[in-house]
Amino acid sequence: MIYIGCHLSVTNGYEAMGKTMCDFGGSTFAYFTRNPRGGKSKEIIPADAAALNTLLKEKGFGKLVAHGSYTMNLCASNSTTRANGFDMLQKDVERMESFPGQYYNFHPGAHTGQGTEKGIELIAEALNDTLFPEMQTTVLLETMAGKGTEIGSSFEELREIIDRVQLSEKLGVCFDTCHVWDAGYDIAGDIDGVLTQFDKVIGLDRLCAVHFNDSKNPCGSHKDRHEKLGKGYIGMEAMKRIALHPSLQNRPFILETPNDDQGYIDEIHTVLGWMES
Ligand code: FE
Ligand code: FE
Ligand code: ZN
Fold first, then answer.
1. Is residue 194 part of a domain?
2. I need a labelling partner for 206 at 20 to 30 A (CA). Which of 85, 105, 136, 169 fits?
3. CA-to-CA separations, 78 to 69, 89, 106, 177, 202, in angstroms, rounded
C-alpha cells in the first residue's frame, strides 16, 4: 500500500489539516511552510502541533511532506535572494522539529546563469550549514522539470548534491511524476526502467515520497504544468502502474493536481480503489 493525500492550507492550523485529510479519506498530506507571497509561516502553537502529532499516530498516517517556499532559491546569482533562501531553509528546518520524523521537501534551486556545477555547490553548502545531527526531519530534494536554469532535472544532479552533503543520511528525494516526465524520463512507457535508473544513480532507499501528478505536456517538454490524474500525457493506466509499483510501496503520495477539494477527494478515492482491486 501507499499513503495518499494532497496539499492542504495551513490557515486553520496544524491539527485542522489532519482532520481535513481524515474527512478526505487520505492518510498523508502536504502544506506550504510559508505563504508564497509574504514568505511568512503560520505560527506553531505547541498544543496544536502536539494534537496533530497524536492524530497522525492514532490514524496511522504516513509521513507528511511539508513543502518549502517556491521563492527560496539557495543557488540564485543574486546574493540577497540567496541569503533570504538560506534564512527560510534554516527556519523551516528548525520549525519542522515540532513535527518529529516528517519530511521537508524543497526545490533545489535555479542557478540563474552561474552554471549547474556552481549551483550544485551552493545548494550543498546551504544544506551543510543547516542540517544538524540531532534533527528528526528528513529533507527531500524534489526532482525538477528542467524549466529555465532549474537544478535537479536529472538523477545525476541530485546525486551530486547528496554526495557533497556531510549529513547525507538526513537527505532523500521527492519523486514528482509530472516533473520527472517533463524532464524526459518515460515513466508512462517504462516505469521499471526509470526506477532502475534511479536506483543505480541515487538508490531507491532515498526515494522517500512521490508528488503524484499527471502532466499537461509530452515527455521531455521541460514545462512543469501539472494535470489531473488521467487527463494528461502520462495517462490513467500509467498513473495506476506507478501507484501500485512494488518499489514505491509504503511511501506518501501527494496530489498536486489542479483540483478543488471535491476533485482531490475523488482522486484520493480513485487511488484507494486501485489498492483494493
Ligand atoms: Fe514542488
Ligand atoms: Fe511537486
Ligand atoms: Zn511542478
1. yes
2. 85
3. 17, 17, 19, 30, 30
CA distances from 186 to 194, 208, 221, 235, 250 (A): 7, 20, 12, 12, 23
Residue type, 98: S
What is the tally of structural domains in the chain? 1
Cα 179 to middle of ligand 1, angstroms: 9
Distance of CA 14 from the midpoint of ligand 3 (Å): 24
Instruction: Give this prediction's pTM.
Output: 0.98
- Percent of the chain topping pLDDT 90: 97
Closest ligand to residue 70's CA: 1
- Least confident residue range of 36-40, 43-47, 186-190: 36-40
The answer as to whether 131 is a domain residue is: yes
Which bound ligand lies closest to the C-alpha atom of 209? 2
The answer to whether position 19 is within a domain reads yes
> How many whole angstroms separate alpha carbon 272 and alpha carbon 274?
5
The reported pLDDT for the residue numbered 205 is: 98
Going from the Cα of 103 to the center of ligand 1, the distance in angstroms, rounded, reads: 13
Task: Find the CATH number of the domain harbouring 33.
Answer: 3.20.20.150
How far, in Å, is the centroid of ligand 2 from the Cα of 144? Answer: 8
| In a domain? residue 195 | yes
Task: Give the model confidence (pLDDT) of 161-212 as tens digits.
Answer: 999 999 999 999 999 999 999 999 999 999 999 999 999 999 999 999 999 9
Distance from Cα 44 to the centre of ligand 3, integer Å: 27
Q: Which domain holds residue 244?
A: 3-266
Ligand 1 geometric centre to CA of 107 (Å): 6
Alpha helix locations (H) across the chain? 14-24, 46-58, 79-96, 116-128, 155-163, 177-183, 191-201, 236-243, 261-276
